[in-house]
């Protein structure tokens, strides 16, 4: 392997991060991981050839670059700036690739903190699902200068099918939130339509056939409605809580341009209401179940 980055530290090896790390190992990178709560993905990656670090200092010192795939910007900030975080054990020129979906304002602030310590922070949020993470065919949106993108491309190519260069640091998180507004808005809309079929006496398979034969045919319809028909919710393995988080970030980002008639604030209210009812940790297809329950409570 001739590329600059041979040793990669992976922080956050959950649904998406596990697939990233597994593909890095398969492509010949020396991968170091660190445990959080769930031992299962760590043990699996170690069995594939990864090395487990006892602490963040050990992981950083063993890595040419660090890939983070965390739940939100709060976790990213803690991992970067905490007393035992990455910057506490940095070395000059370290590259940190943040594959989380984050708040652009926080990303800009963290980039300044990293730059002050001669660490290069790149925002590289992901598109697609854990299915594609395991296959190594994710979409990656990159916020970095041209030279940095060229340097890290061999790392990204290990787990990505498509790489989109959004612009400077922070641009990728903005573009990802726009993408998630469309996809999560569509998912919520389809879930409401599916849920209302039963009280209207509409056959779900017929509805599925109709959508697939017209302009509404897309991956979300296929995975959400197809998954409901097969009782397989794992085809959209993304929690409602994470959806609400992302749409919250989106609303904060567009706040200067928002008016009361726009859809984004109402989408956030819808998702947060589901979280407040106790269903935040359910996967997105469970929005159908929530809406069906609400219909029964009304009658």
UniProtKB/TrEMBL annotation:
Residues 170-278 form the 3-hydroxyisobutyrate dehydrogenase-like NAD-binding domain. The lineage of its organism: Bacteria, Pseudomonadati, Pseudomonadota, Betaproteobacteria, Burkholderiales. Transmembrane segments: none annotated. This is NAD(P)-dependent oxidoreductase. Residues 7-167 form the 6-phosphogluconate dehydrogenase NADP-binding domain. Pfam families: NAD_binding_11, NAD_binding_2. PANTHER family: 3-HYDROXYISOBUTYRATE DEHYDROGENASE-LIKE 1, MITOCHONDRIAL-RELATED (PTHR43060:SF15). InterPro entries: 6-PGluconate_DH-like_C_sf (IPR008927), 6PGD_dom2 (IPR013328), 6PGDH_NADP-bd (IPR006115), HIBADH-like_NADP-bd (IPR029154), HIBADH-related (IPR015815), NAD(P)-bd_dom_sf (IPR036291). It comes from the Bacteria. Keywords: NAD, Oxidoreductase. GO terms for molecular function: NAD binding; NADP binding; oxidoreductase activity. The active site is at residue 176. It comes from Advenella kashmirensis. Coiled coil: none annotated.
